[in-house]
Amino acid sequence: MRARPWVALAFLLPALLVLGALVVYPIGYSVWRSLFDAAGSGFVGLDNYAEVFTDEDNLKAVQNSLIWVIVAPSIATALGLIFAVLTDRIRFGTAFKLIVFMPMAISMLAVGIIFRLVYEADPDRGVANAVWTGVHDTFTEASAWPGARPRPDSELTAAGGGAFATGSAVDAADPANLPLVGVPPQDVAGAAPAKAAEPGSGGEVTGTVWLDFSQGGGGEPGRIDEGEKALAGVRVEAVKDGEVVGSATTAEDGTYTLPAAADGATLRLPASNFAEAYNGVDWLGPALVTPAIIASYVWMWAGFAMVLIAAGLAGVPREILEAARVDGASEWQVFRRVTVPLLAPVLAVVLVTLMINVLKIFDLVYIIAPSATQDDASVLALQLYLVSFGTNTNQGVGSAFAVLLLLLVVPVMVVNIRRLRRENR
């Protein structure tokens, strides 16, 4: 450098030109452009930066980015640490590491498409809701006929809370038929034909619950016509003076039989017969869209954290761990007071690297979040894109977002570089 500086400059010049064109010039132009209005002709000073922190949508993006920086790297690093420590003790640790690290081989675009399908609201298509509804339905009894209801002119009337009740008392000598409508024909395609109940021989109250609808029209309302389908599994309760004195569930042919105590009572069909089916959680709704996307990011990057931490763990002297165990330390104490402190430099590198990565997150949010909740899930990089190239473009504010991202990333990078240099020394 001192003897022939022009030779060093000649070798460095191509790289300097590339860096200047691809890094220095875009940064300088973004800073300059952020001081002008949407048209780029009027100087507005720091107004664009003020809009970043005052506009509701822009402020939401800043808040979400802060959540990402705090939550996503922390969870990914913690999981990586747990996986690295556990795989160090099991026989099939290498295979487990391969499985956990495999998502890193998938692009952000592909991960976004995968989790968009995972979070699909329809349990028949979305894995998350399929599992969730399966667990829910295991502990909660499903309704028999969701959406079913009596005819407007029927004796059954609304009894509050989604239940229906008869207006008059029933007589054991006269079967109490309870017609319902509102069930799609395809839902009863395989149901048995409705059967008219016979009066009870011992004073029991009988009746039939059926779909009072004939395919192709015709039939008489309130009467069991040929071809009309039975509604099986409907719970019928007999109520006297506000107390349930008997209950029954309709058979395959729609008939039911209540005990003799039900004679003179009113009949009630509880709301549990008609509650809409549980379809799971709205994972991509305003409340859960950001945590759902963070979960997809952690699924992808926990393997990256695990591999780096496992490499650091391989360099930890085993003698220190064994000495701690000999001194009577439990496995949790060895982990908390020996393993974690020795891995602190590696954990810091992983954490800082992931923080830089999440500040630039764009793909996952853009692909997974539906248009209805995209504003609720927006982050700095996505808001930069939407403001600069969306419907109402304002590249002045977009440039302000770019400068803000630069100001947030640079300090983290400086800390990381200094740490690496300190470790090298």
Q: Structural class of the helices, strands and pairings?
A: alpha+beta
Specify Rg, calculated over alpha carbons: 34 Å
N→C terminal distance: 23 Å
Run of helices and strands: HHHHHHEEEEEEEEHHHHHHHH
Mean of all residue-level pLDDT scores: 88
Number of H- or I-type helical stretches: 14
Sequence stretches where pLDDT stays below 50 over 5 or more residues: none
Number of strands: 8
State the shape: elongated
CATH structural architecture of the largest domain: Orthogonal Bundle
Determine the fraction of residues in helical runs and give it as a percent range: 40-55%
Kindly identify the CATH topology of the largest domain. Answer: MetI-like fold
Reading off the top of the CATH hierarchy, the class of the largest domain is best stated as Mainly Alpha
The side-by-side strand order for the widest beta sheet comes to 1-2-8-5-6
Could you state the CATH homologous superfamily of the largest domain?
Answer: MetI-like
Beta content comes to 5-15%
Count of structural domains? 2
